[in-house]
Design brief:
Elements: E1 3-14, E2 17-28, E3 32-37, H1 43-51, E4 58-67, E5 70-71, H2 77-86, E6 88-91, H3 105-114, H4 121-134, H5 140-143, H6 153-166, E7 171-175, H7 183-199, E8 203-207, H8 211-217, E9 220-225, E10 228-234, H9 235-240, H10 245-255
Parallel strand pairs: 3-8, 3-9, 6-7, 7-8
Antiparallel strand pairs: 1-2, 1-4, 4-5, 9-10
Helix pairs in contact: 3-4, 4-6, 6-7
This protein binds adenosine-5'-triphosphate and magnesium ion.
Length: 257
């Protein structure tokens, strides 16, 4: 198993309030790391810390975030931009917010790809069509000419994933990527992550509230509670032999549903 991301002893504060405390976690090539925990436990802050897109009031007070051998916290702003768009990609809960609604889908592919590769307009178009086909978007050629507001949330979510596929991102950070979608679209997006895991070498960090999603997709699980990771295990041990009282409670509460 090749480690692609390692977070070491990461702490984040907002003012004097501890938001994340001594977070340690690793993500591996071709594996899904599920991150679960109650609302306010710090899941989104963790994703944003890794992407270094924390709100300005939040400060990383300690720690390291290694992408392969590079500590992302030691990069200059320009170097970080290059890494962020190229290797790490965030799939947001509300895909609509990730798009510029006065630019076509083709333009989004062009801007993203041009930032990292030297490609002709035609090559970009071909790659965009290919990537959108991979995520089962219908009529990708036509879609290129659409504006984001003309597409459903589920379609936009898949366009966002297609953009990450096109740049061959090695880490997908998906913060509750399906909560804004209806069940059909949810299922499609989750199946897609499963395929990405199998077909590409990417590591996927998948934040979810849903233990069913964890059971179906995750290889490893990290449980967050009040800004800390209180348990980390492979998915079998997580369900069969939970260690922490909170994890046991979480699993029990599922049975009573
Ligand atoms: N912009 C902000 N300003 C101040 N505090 C914030 C801000 N965003 C989040 N927090 C605080 O940081 C902590 C962690 O929040 P975070 O959004 O990471 O939780 P979460 O686990 O993602 O929750 P949810 O499951 O509801 O998305 C919470 O205590 C929250 O109140
Ligand atoms: Mg959140």
């Amino acid at each position: 198993m090749k480690k692609v991301l390692e977070v070491k002893d990461l702490s984040v504060k907002i003012g004097e309030e501890k938001i994340l405390t001594s977070i340690n976690l690793s993500a591996y090539q071709g594996r899904v790391l599920g991150i679960i925990g109650e609302s306010g436990s710090g899941k989104t802050m963790l994703c944003q810390a890794i992407m270094q897109s924390l709100p300005s009031i939040a400060q990383i007070t300690h720690g390291e975030i290694f992408y392969q051998q590079q500590d992302l916290l030691k990069l200059s702003a320009a170097q970080l931009r290059a890494y962020r768009g190229r290797h790490l990609s965030i799939i947001m809960q509300n895909p609509s917010a990730a798009f510029d609604h006065i630019q076509t889908i083709e333009r989004h592919f062009r801007e993203t790809l041009k930032a990292h590769f030297v490609m002709t307009k035609n090559e970009i178009r071909q790659l965009a069509i290919e990537s959108m086909s991979k995520v089962n978007l219908p009529n990708p050629e036509q879609l290129l000419h659409y504006y984001p507001f003309q597409l459903s949330g589920g379609m936009l979510q898949r366009v966002m994933i297609a953009l990450s596929l096109a740049i061959q991102a090695s880490i997908y950070i998906a913060d509750e990527p399906t909560t804004a979608l209806d069940t059909v679209n949810q299922k499609q997006v989750l199946t897609l992550f499963d395929r990405i895991r199998l077909e590409t070498e990417a590591a996927i960090l998948l934040v979810t509230h849903d233990l069913g999603v964890i059971a179906e997709l995750a290889d490893d699980v990290a449980v967050m509670y009040k800004g800390e990771i209180i348990e980390q295990a492979n998915v079998y041990d997580f369900f069969d032999a939970p260690q922490h009282a909170y994890t046991k409670k979480l699993l029990q509460s599922r049975i009573t549903f």
